[in-house]
Amino acid sequence: MPLTKIQSLGITDGTIVNADINASAAITGTKISNLNDAKAWVNFNGTGTIATRASYNVSSLTDVATGTYRVNFTTAMTDANYCNVASVNYDATTATGSSINVDRGSQTTTYMYLEIRSAAQTADVDRAYIHAAVFR
């Protein structure tokens, strides 16, 4: 795009200028659109007494069994047809990987389950770094 076209859009030296926005109105913490934003996410320690490191729209975690966790939402999803994604760390102490499953069979508007299995898929395992997010 030629520089003249960018300048005509009101973009100069990294600053977007729009005469239609009231210059006295500060925009702080407000988004123009929440479309495709994560509706919930969590980063937690799944070993010992489980603990949330950081989260958004997650009220609590439930340690259901070894390698199985329930993620409870603060604000319910509009329906249970959301997309949930998750990841888990490699365990350097045992030199083994693992897989994480998001349990679609038990997914509701108020919670979802995460299940972590050993790399060989032979046992459920706890991991220190578990991350999950929900999109709708």
Structural features, described:
The protein has one helix spanning 3-8; strands at residues 11-12, 15-16, 38-45, 51-56, 58-65, 68-73, 83-88, 98-102, 111-118, 130-135. It is globular, with a radius of gyration of 21 Å. The two termini are 33 Å apart. It has one helix and ten strands. The strands form three sheets. It has a four-stranded antiparallel sheet, with no helix packed on it. A hairpin with a 2-residue loop joins strand 1 (11-12) and strand 2. The protein has one domain. It has 136 residues and is mainly beta.
Keywords:
single chain, 136 residues, mainly beta, 10 strands
Write the layout of secondary structure elements.
Elements: H1 3-8, E1 11-12, E2 15-16, E3 38-45, E4 51-56, E5 58-65, E6 68-73, E7 83-88, E8 98-102, E9 111-118, E10 130-135
Antiparallel strand pairs: 1-2, 3-4, 3-10, 5-6, 6-9, 7-10, 8-9
